[in-house]
Amino acid sequence: MSDKHKIVVIGGGLAGLIAAYLLAKNGQEVLLVEKKRYPFHRVCGEYLSNEVLDFLTRENLMPMHYNFPQVSKFLFSDTSGKRVSIPLDLGGFGISRYVLDEHLYQKTVEKGSGVKTGAQVESAVFDDRENQFLLELADGGLLTADYVIGAFGKRSKLDKTMERGFIQKRSPYIGVKYHIKTDIDQKSVALHNFEGGYCGLNGIEDGKANLCYLGNRDHLRKYGSIAAMEKEILWKNPNLRSVFTESEFLFEKPEVINEINFERKNPVENHILMAGDSAGLITPLCGNGMAMAIQSGKLAAEAIIAGRSRREIEVRYENSWKSHFERRLWLGRKVQRLFGAKQASVFTGKLIQHMPFVATQIIKNTHGKPF
């Protein structure tokens, strides 16, 4: 026997939570399925562009009992450690996923959405004859749904079972994240380059900072451990050496994710509306992945609410997703070539220093407008 639902949202990150919240608010019958249990940490830059601030405030989705660092500057260092800084046009604020996701989860439950945590969706198959989805859970349970939103993140078992194109291509990137106590400029989001990658650093709530970097799996294999790789590779940038040696690390061990892939993805696959990183992952240096996830969850919910047929819903969502994000993702892939290598990072530093208008325009074009 299967458990019948009108809408199932697979994945309880920002995109999934926002979609479930808005659908429940609209009176839709929706179930959110998340494999972990809240609250928990995620590998994420934890800098949120102000393009989402009006929306979160309007929907009463901002956690108000914290003091979040307001970010107005971008600090860059090349692989040798040379630094340069420019103002951020729109700016943003630092907030941990541990705090934000938990808050959104509670708000989603308050609105009446069903939530099933500690549950993994193993497969999601659309039955043309029945005009519905059959979802199989890891524990053997079955769900049926009229509509499915796929918000299961950067890389999932579902990507493999669905045989999505990007999953066939190996990626050299790994993501590593820590929370630390350190002395940094709370008004800056920093991006420090090292051989084969780059590291983001910015303040979050409670006087903490988030340190999250994109590294190379070949370096990890060569040096045998994350700690050894950090000493041999990241510490060659003196800015990162000082952060690693002079900070208090708050996790027992880092959060790690493998095979981070920036290949192009489709916003609708097998009739599933893909949202957040499931639809496309913007390079971390652009600093607005969290904002894009929030907005894509909103667009997916709006498409289901407004659409009168499956075809109309899918076309509406695909068109709106592409108009908001396709160019930004493309530009992010191009801009990534300016980071993670000595010559490229030196060139980028000089570009920021001597042509700040160009650098500002690049940043502006990888971000959206307030909504």
Describe it.
This protein has a single domain, classed as FAD/NAD(P)-binding domain. A hairpin with a 4-residue loop joins strand 8 and strand 9 (142-150). The strands form 2 sheets. Strands 3, 4, 5, 10, 11, 12, 13, 14 and 15 form a 9-stranded mixed β-sheet that branches. Strands 1, 2, 6, 7, 8, 9, 16 and 17 form an 8-stranded mixed β-sheet that branches. Helix 1 (14-25) packs parallel to helix 8. It is globular, with a radius of gyration of 20 Å. The protein is an alpha/beta fold and 371 residues long. The chain has 11 helices and 17 strands. The model has no long low-confidence stretch (mean pLDDT 92). It is 34% helix and 29% strand.
